[in-house]
User: Fold this.
Amino acid sequence: MKNTFSRGAFEFQSETDSIFSTNNQPELVGSNPTLSASLLIGNDPVVLPESCQFRDENTAKEPNVMTPQGRMRKSLELSKRALRLGIQVRRIPNRARGQEYGHSWLVVIPAKVTGQGRIRRQFKATEAGMAVDFAEGAANKAKELGLTAFILKPEEMTDAKRALKRLQGSGLSLTAAVEFAVRHLRPAGGDATLVQVLERLLRAKKEKNLRPASLESLQKYAGRLVRNFGEETPVKSVTADQLKTWIRACAASGSSARLVQNIAAYTRQFFRFALQEMLIVTDPSAALRPEGRLEDEKAISVLTVDQTKALLRTAMTEKHRDLLPAMVLSLFCGGIRSEELTRLRWSDVDLTAGTVTLDGRQTKTRQRRKCEIPANAREFLLLHPKRQGPITPQRFELRASQLYLDAGFKNWKRDYANAKRHSFGTYASKLHDWGWVVDQMGNSVVIMLRHYRDGSVSKEDAQAFFEISPANLTAAGEILVMRA
Assistant:
């Protein structure tokens, strides 16, 4: 508060709450710097010397404000603890419009005490005691609670105490527990539900030009995972133990070993994608790898020469004759896969050069390969009256299933899956080097060694297999000889 009063030609100004004595007149006293006063001569102020100032009764009552010599202290006395921490309470002048008027007490608490930015709080000239209390209170907080006294709210302090109690005996610090929680509960890629991850996975595979059949398989098997755990379940909440329990339940339900293996494989693919997208921190499906093969691997199915003849005889009947080219190419020409056959056209078959060319769009591996047509296969293919358009008829898989049944194979899918391709690989490996067989089939050497070293098949069996022709088939049922 600014007070102005006059005595004769002099005008005095003070910045205290009260500068008047009981008779409302200024009292000149020795050295009381609780007031500042100026002498106005005309319009020019002249600051009075410190020896001529006015007593401020309110300020005089504040503790530790005056020095023994009767001067205003530049800073207030604090405890050793506060001083050691660098806490200060100092006198600062008040300013307005470029002029100083009186003073205030500024409390400064350094950043090293708060753990964040420094704290500055200003008190009125009459609040010296409050300034000291505030400074000492900060020093006491720093001693008792450390930096958390200035950073944490009361409810946060309570929460931290509960957390520390839970961590007792675990060997974990609160910081380690928090870092783990943040990584797992707030993944860098954000939160996503299982159905959202599946949608993103399918979209990513489409952009990479995955074939429709492969997309259908992904949708089918990964969809089982989503339906089992719930579409809205956060992907980060699924654990390795939950996945193991689910896979074992699938096996116990009577599902085939192959089906369970497929479910496990697509589940691993699903969570690997989630990991790549940073939607999870660790892959819970990695633990499924030992569960991939739930029973001993069965030997591959290889058709005998008689079984092969029975299949071809049935394919030459009027009912199934449009399936004959596909059967012949799969049996004798590189063991072409059923899915590859559906993408193959007669324009890819060169009977003159004796080759079948499959480009990357047609093969499973997306790698181009060329398969040789042996002499016996050429004889069968020449019997087909219409050699143009697709190699396979419409509804190929359904039609082929009926052919297998009519040929005497009661459960082809269960007992003879991929038998035509396996038969080619097994018999060809007895007559050719492995490099040639791998090149014809588009397999890896690992698969070649794993499947096609059947000791029960002799070289004589292999020769008989590749000598099967329309001329040496034993008649059984209606035989339709088709001419070009």
Notes: The longest strand covers residues 99-109.
